[in-house]
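Progress report, Aim 2. The chain analyzed during this reporting quarter is listed below.
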Amino acid sequence: MLILFVIGLTGIFVFLVHPALPETEVWAYIMAHVPPAFKGCIAIGLLAMTMSTADSSLHACSVIVSHDIMEIIQGTKDAPSFAHQIRLAKSSTIVYPACSILMNY
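Predicted C-alpha cells for the chain:
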C-alpha cells in the first residue's frame, strides 16, 4: 500500500510542477531531477523485482519437474522419495537456467 502511495504521490508532484509534460517524458524528467541516492534505490528496486521474478520462475520449474513430471514418468505406484524429489529439484534449478541461456544464444 505504501508503494502505491509513493508512486501516486510522485506522479502528482510531477504533474503539479509540469502539467504540460507529455507522458513519454515523465520518466526522463523524474530521473533528471532525482538525487543520486534515490537513483540508486530505484536501480536496486528494479534489480530486486527482476531477481524475484527469475527466482519464482526457477522455483516453479523445479517443482514441476520434481513433483509433477517425474510422477507421471515413473507412475503413481512408484512415486519417488522425498529426498529424490529434493535432489531432482536442485539439479533442475541448475539445468533449467543453463538451457535457457543456451537457447538465447
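Residues 53-105 form one domain. The helical segments are 2-17, 26-32, 36-74, 82-104. These observations will guide the mutagenesis work planned for the next reporting period.
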